[in-house]
Here is the input.
Amino acid sequence: MESRQPRTLNIEAERKPDFDLLVRRLSVGERRVEGKDAFLLAMAYGFRSGQRQEIEKRLSYARIEQLVEVDRCMIVAVALESGIRADDLTMAAAYKIAEEYARAGIALLRDKLDEPLEFRNELMLEMLEAAPKALIEGAAAEEE
Amino acid sequence: MRICEISISNYRAYKDARFEFVGHRANVASIVGRPGAGKTALLNAITWCLYGTESFRGSTPNGDRRPLPLINKGSKEFGLEIGETAARIEIKIEFEDGRRATIRREQVFAITGPNHVEPLGEQVLHVVLRSDNDGYMPVDEPSLWIARHLPERIRPYFILNTERLEQFFIGDGAEQDRVRGAILEIAQIDVLGRIRTRLGKVKSGLLSRKGDRKEGRRGELEDDYETLTARLEAKQEELRCERAALEAANADIADLMARMGERDEFRELIAKQEAAEAGLEEVKRQLSVAEEDLSSFIAQEGACVLVAPAVRELSGEIEEAWNSGRIPAPIHPDFLVKLRDHDQRCICGRGLGPSEQAAFDALVARHQQLSEHGRMLQEMLGPSATLLDRATEFRARLSVLNSAVDELKRRGRTFQERKDAIRVELDRRGLKDADLRLLQAKQDAAYQAKERATTGKAMAERDLGGLETQIKEVERLLKIEMKKDRNLGQLTALVEFTDECIRAADQAYDQLITQTRVEVSDALNDCFLKMMRDTRGETFLGASIDEGFSPHVDAVGGWDAAGDLSGGEDVCLALAFSQALGRVSGFELPLILDSPFVKILDHQIMSDVMRTMLANLEGRQLVLLMKPEEYRLGVQDVLETSGLGEAMRLDFDENTQTTVVS
Here is the structure.
């Protein structure tokens, strides 16, 4: 378990261009998407795909302090969902797991980034697909 | 014609005198007076009465030449009073047919003193005819009447004085002219001469009119006409061009005005197009914003949606931990310790009871003992709920954003369609904004062209008017020239006719003067020989006037005696010439001779000449004005022998300065 609190979110070094491309694709007009948002999206995409991959060569990509509560909540939720024991769950562990999902996620998104419009549409469709499911799943869970 | 009576009033020395030529004096009258008695004044009285002029210069009793004041100045003692008086001379004549005429001339004078006599007004001439049938009848034009019956030009040949007689045939080289003049006047050939002169003037006038015609004048006018016509045609063409340009400019303006009439509609379309473009741009901007919102939303919420199941799990675990009491309410332990260590141990102003104090301490202990995992769950309590809410709202929000984008896209298509429709309409009308400016420029150019054409048209019309006026003037001049050309032929014919007339007149003139000269010459010969035969026998063979109008007297021995005649012979020759002129002319005028014998010293010759004269009067009245010695020595005996009575006497009264007739 990681005991020391990390200060940055890391990505696989060789995926740095892909993350930057993802940032550009997500940035529209004057609205600049921050690196941590791209990181979180890649993480969520990897989590959604159920794929994670350990970081081999770390590269600091975003500062932890940039994360807000909901960001950390998503990271913790993903970490808990990944199967780690609750007693072992720390924020450092959660960040590490998030980095691994992010690496897998960016690899999955990479092919879609070449077509900006398609990227956004496909991503939106996948979100729509995921959103009702989440709600249904959520509603079903509540009913249970 | 005879002189019956001469009355003289206030004329020179004559105060009031009357000469009656009746009885034997009707044929031959003798008037005798000393020098200055009034003989020459009587001759002048006759000529003044007839012609208004005095022709002879008399002498005073002292032998001095008398000046020619018409009226005797007179004096108080001589009976001429200061005031107005009239010199009046009246001559009564009788023609062979019995008609009588009274000729009277008078002039009023103002006498202001002995040496101050001034005429007042004009001379007044009256001629009154009297006949047994018609009675007295004044003549309207007395001067013309006198000129017809007693022409002044022949006066020298019926009123003669000695000087005249002496000088008539004097060989001074001018006798030919005098003779010729006398023949011409007697023969009234001067009328033909005047006709000839008039014809000459007419010819000169005709030739002048011909000469006035400028050479090539018609040619110049025709050249001018041709030039002006060419200029006129050119100007007419120019005017046609200007009119065509004006019509074209007006048509352009009308067309452009019609097209400009669509300008408002066109501008409205342009405005709509611009509004559509603006709307489209706005929609695009809004769409861009919406897409930014959508993209940003996806970027922001994508992770949230994708990890929603995990968050849901986390939320469930947090709820379970909360329900099981594994995690307390999310109060920070430091805050709780501060609450517990507070001196007043109260919360919200109310003091804690012992049980409350114990529960509060237990809570603080629970928070202090909370594991990292529990604390993590505790911290995730709020955010997980937030994430779930966001995930729940994702579709709805995405739908809103998508709808907004779709709506904007629809609006964008609408604007685009509107814009395209306007463009199509503009294209259909062939109007573009550039067209509008071009249209305006064309309209301006058309107005300028119209102005130029209007100015050019006005100038062309003005020039045309001037040219037409010039052409009309040239045409008028050409007509005149053509008429002149036509008249020129007539003029030439007229000149030729005048030439013929002149030639005929010359011929007639020459014939008439020759004939008259011959007649006068024959009459002269006849009269002269008659006169000379009695006194000179056969000394003279004849007298004649040659073609050069020189008188000749053929004497025995074959010599010309014209220049060697004695005084009496000269008088006879002059009288014969006068007789000849009277015979040829038909004017049987009285013969009035002033001192005819004064130069003849031989008494016998005087008597002979007198007898000769009486024997050759041929019915003419003879009035002789003589000095007493002339009368006594050479005439008186002849007259008395012939029964012609005594002579009238003129005496000058020195006392009254008046001539007395007795």
